[in-house]
Amino acid sequence: MFNNEALDVVIGIVLVYLLYSMLITIMGEYVSTKLGLRARLLRVAIERMLNDGYYRQLKTPRQHRIQFWLVKRFMFEPDGFKSSFAGRFYEFPAIKFLSRIETENKKRFDLTKPSYFSAAYFADTLIDILKEKSSGKTNVQRIAYTLHYNTQHIQPQTLKIIRNHFTNAQEDLSKFKANLVQWFDETMDRCNGWYKRKLQFVLFYLGLVVAIAFNIDSIHIARILSRDKEARQQLVDMGVRLAKDTATYKDFTGRASDTLRGKAILDKGFDHVTKDIQAANLILGLGWHYAPPLVNTTVVWSKPDIAHLPLLKSYAKLSELQASLKKRLTERQVTLQHQLGQAAIYRLDVLVFKNQLQQATPAKLLEAYSQKVADTVKLTGQILTGRAALRADSLNWRENARQMLAMSQPLLKAPLIRLSDVKFKKAATYELIGQRKSDFWEVLGYLLRGFFSHLPGLLITALALSLGAPFWFDLLNKLVSIRAAGVKPEEKKIVPTTEQPGVNPLPIPAPVPATDTDEAGAALDALTGQLVGEQGIIGLGLKLQPPGILVMVTSQQVITYLTNKYGNTWPLSPTATLPLTFAVEGLNFLHAGTCGGQISNAALMSNSGTLGAFLRKTGSNDDYFISCWHVLKDNYRYKDPAVNLDIVAFNNNVPGTSPIGTIVDGCLTDKLDVGIARCTAAAPKPANTQGTFSVKKQHRAVTAYDGLVSTPVQIQGMASQLVDATIFQYKLNITIPYDDGHDYMLYDVFSLIQTDDQGNISAPTTKGDSGALVLEAGTGVPLGMIFGGNQNYSYAIKFSNIFDTDQPYHGYYFNI
């Protein structure tokens, strides 16, 4: 057994740290559960994965620094989270309904997000989201479509990461899922580290609160244990017993997992810990024991009443007697101490003389010895007499004090609560000398001085407790093993881990545009693919009478070049061809206007257009409206998510002060230029009726029959107002320049024309009409939405490419 006082002191301190660290571990679990710490950290991790620039987005203006601090420290959802890609991930039903409390019923710190979901669940949900706003026959094609055209408004850096995972999977859905699972697992490994650091902060503050509440001053405890052997031994015995009893606290001293502990485990652990803490506190006498001291004071009592005069005089005499007795006691004590010292010297001299007399007995030495013995006897008698006198004076002093105490009660005068002396002054005036209670500021000063004297020890305790119970339990085991001279505890074996080298990201290929099932549509798409990159191409469309493909170009020189390169026919099947007809047309342009439009984004009012129609959405009670993406977008970066989501309306070219809607969906793809906004309170009443222009049914597809019979339609644009037109070509692939400086090829649109009395054709819409609704005349069936055109044709997006079951926005429908 290796017993050492310093080692025992350390064991005692470590035991105190262990008991209180288990207490704050239990408290930390309750706090973590109540604040939803795991759920909040999981949301932050998902937000870092699926949103760009997490901390940059948290920054707020100078006047909102407190809000920024709260959002960052308590991990509240930042403004705009729900509209971000990470927010939409959490709103997806597969994730949303994992939470314990619905958003509508939540309180400030309630859990509205799940605390955990598996990597496979994350990957499956993300794949389901990527398949939503897309087009294609297979899941791989739909995901490729979403990633290429960014229909989910994923921010650039996140989009690049997901594209890399998809490209590395080589169009294998199972490999893509495995890549997402690995991405999630790596992020969760870091999230566990974030949780431990965040929990350590929580434990530090809880430890500081507990240390202050119980006055667990490490310095004071060390002093107690160093001088109190019995207290030290009792704590060592507790430490040895606890180190051997691994079952009682195994749920709090292990490092195996980072899962939530059940309420029953927490309650049982709390009972054990509080019992052991009470035992330790009794041994060490921990806690606050402050009793504010009494303050010496003097009260002048002038002209006391007759009843108090005898008492005052008697008390004054007793006080004088007490003073004299105290003086005499002091003198007797000093004299007695001096005499006791002399007696010790005399006894030593007697012993010396006695030893000398044993060797020789000269007369003078014998005389000196006899005199010293007589002096010692005399001094001893004086000492005994002095002790008796001191005892008598002490009894007199106590009796006098008892009489003074009994007499002082009727003489107490506010604010005195204890009387120690009465002095007579001139003119029948007495001074009452005694103690009073401390006032508020004196008590506060006394408490603060006491608190700050303990503060260094309290801070040391808080830091120690934040290390956690497993740390102190391991240390206690090692110290007990050393004290018992036992076997050294085995060190934890560290298993080396290997990291997979990163793979250089490859560019994701553009998905092949979906082709029609009919041979003519497939031939048109094949020819379009061949002509991509050729200069001077305006568009290609199917002709029905006679059958063929119309190729619209910018000049005759382009026709000559294309005829020499591709000829005048294009294969329809192995045995048939389609004739090619070339025509010179004017350049295409978007029909967004710089003024006169009905709506625009509040951040880009120079780019306005038309509110197309009001919509509803499955599973929602909100109202929505549709227009073109290039009308609703807040800048010309059409592939990036919108930052400013507010849509304003114009009245006589003057924009409104309140937004009528906020962007919720939209994209620019190979078939779509569409934006959808949720109506606000300032929006006009949802009604798809304006005079004779009225939506009466849900949409239908534009077919070859519409091109064959030139189906009559009505168009309600802000610039052109209500116009009549006809469908000219039911299927076109056209090239149109956008304001970002790029030319985009849009597939499967249809064209509209107006014809005057002389048979001349012209475009029925112009700038300011982007987003205008195209209705079949007479039936009120929506067919499409204007987005651009040239001098002769207006072009419209087909609603079947937007709202059909296998299309990106199939959840929306017209508000009839």
Could you describe the 3D structure shown?
The structure is a single chain. 33% of the residues are buried. With 816 residues, this protein is an alpha+beta fold. The two termini are 91 Å apart. Helix 15 (309-359) runs antiparallel to helix 16 (363-408). Helices cover 46% and strands 20% of the residues. The strands form four sheets. Strands 9, 10, 11, 12, 13, 14, 15, 16 and 26 form a nine-stranded antiparallel beta sheet that branches. It has a six-stranded antiparallel beta barrel with strand order 19-20-21-25-24-23. Strands 1-3-2 form a three-stranded antiparallel beta sheet. The radius of gyration is 48 Å and the shape is elongated. Strand 9 and strand 10 form a beta hairpin.
